[in-house]
Amino acid sequence: MTVSTNSIDQPAVDTPTVNRRAIVIGGSLAGLFSGVLLRSIGWQVDIYERSAHELDSRGGGVVLQADVVTAFKRAGIATAALGVDAFERYYLQKDGRIDRMPMRQTLTSWNILYRTMRRHFPDEHYHQGKVLTEVRPGNGTVTAVFADGSDETGDLLIGADGPTSTVRQQLLPAYAPQYAGYVGYRGLVDEADLEPEAAEIFTERFVFYDFPNSHILQYVIPGENESLVPGERRFNWVWYVNYDEQTELPRLLTDKGERQRTYSVPPGMMSAAAEQEMRDYADQVLIAPFQKLVAATKEPFVQSILDLGVPQMAFDRVALIGDAAFIPRPHTAASTAKAAANAIALVEALVDHSHNVPQALADWESDQLALGMNLWQHGRSLGERSQFMCGKGRSRG
Ligand SMILES: Cc1cc2nc3c(=O)[nH]c(=O)nc-3n(C[C@H](O)[C@H](O)[C@H](O)COP(=O)(O)OP(=O)(O)OC[C@H]3O[C@@H](n4cnc5c(N)ncnc54)[C@H](O)[C@@H]3O)c2cc1C
Fold it and tell me: Which residues, including other chains, have CB under 8 Å from residue 219's CB and lie 6 or more apart?
């Protein structure tokens, strides 16, 4: 599918070349990719986000993939200062050996991607504290109904409302995320807060330690203030640990205010007991550099690893995109890129079909289903291989 460069390789401008209106549900990355790209082809776009607060206090690291860079470029957003380069992979061994592999990757942060797109999307069209409750198909239109009683009508509605998607619950009620059998403990450490010997190993490298039924990884990402300057960045780590869904997971997902969370506990909210359990386990099973990294982490957080794949993404004038449709396991490092790819292909289809929404969505869907399904299956096989190998340690429930 080709698109003329005049139509979509231009900066986002408010030129209503096609007097069409999109309603985007969810103001995280998939919603913002859609928003900035639809504006770049002249659509009027309003984003409705459930959270009443800025989302940017919970993000960790993201591997910067080509589709994200493409989406930014097509929306006219500069990409030069998006990430930190790593030049090689280190696979640390228990006996102190290091297996090295040259590989260049750019690592960024969820915060930078979110904030950069937020700055390019007009505040007056980004509505916070708006909870979608219902999608109503109309005659050549679609209407979003919100919990505050208001409603909005447009030509296209994009369900970018993530794992708990209300849009998906209404259109595909049988499909919901399934717990994969393990969690990702996560943490961020300012470069200045890690002792030099460990910092030397981790700096500008993608570093792994694999052991039976688990693995931990680290890469450097921009600082909280988006700085890429050495000394002002952060070490980002993720540690995958198996927890039984019935007997163990509820304890881990109960936060320090005793609230039972659905899928994740954000930084600063883990209960003291759950945090201590993680730190004790790190002292038992990790090797020294990673023990130091976990010990230096002030506010670890945890998220359940989920599986989700849907059989349909286009519903006349409604498109399901990003994590609302497919949640590949994080080992693919592709969730954010998939959200970008969904949005890029959607605007291409709208241009190809002269903005005939149902036709464009029908054309868009098959490649996006294939992309989601492939990533989903690939992620599952990577996860099963690394988390449930026979051996000592936390086996599956
Ligand atoms: C705060 C935050 C931090 C994250 N940090 C990372 C990270 O560090 N690394 C990483 O790889 N991934 C991270 N993710 C997940 C990442 O954004 C996704 O995996 C991926 O980029 C696709 O995003 P998405 O927009 O489809 O889904 P999500 O990012 O889950 O966003 C869905 C959005 O929809 C909103 N929403 C849900 N229901 C409704 C409703 N009924 N009405 C209105 N709005 C609704 C949610 O509040 C949320 O903002 C984070 C997500 C969030 C929300």
Answer: 61, 63, 84, 86, 105, 107, 205, 206, 207, 235, 236
Cα 39 to Cα 338: distance, rounded to the nearest angstrom: 20
* Domains of the chain and any CATH numbers: 5-58+112-177+307-386 (3.50.50.60), 84-109+179-306 (3.30.9.60)
Cross-strand pairs, 237: 187, 218
CA proximity to 150, closest of 117, 127, 120 = 127
Q: What residue ranges of the chain have pLDDT lower than 50?
A: 1-16, 396-397
Task: Tell me, using a 6 A CB cutoff, whether residue 50 lines ligand 1.
Answer: yes
Q: Please tell me if the CB atom of residue 265 comes closer than 6 angstroms to any atom of ligand 1.
A: no
Contacts of 314 (CB under 8 A, 6+ apart): 320, 361, 362, 364, 365
Ligand 1 center–CA 28 separation, angstroms: 5
Please give the pLDDT value at position 59.
74
Residue 33 Cα: closest atom of ligand 1: 25
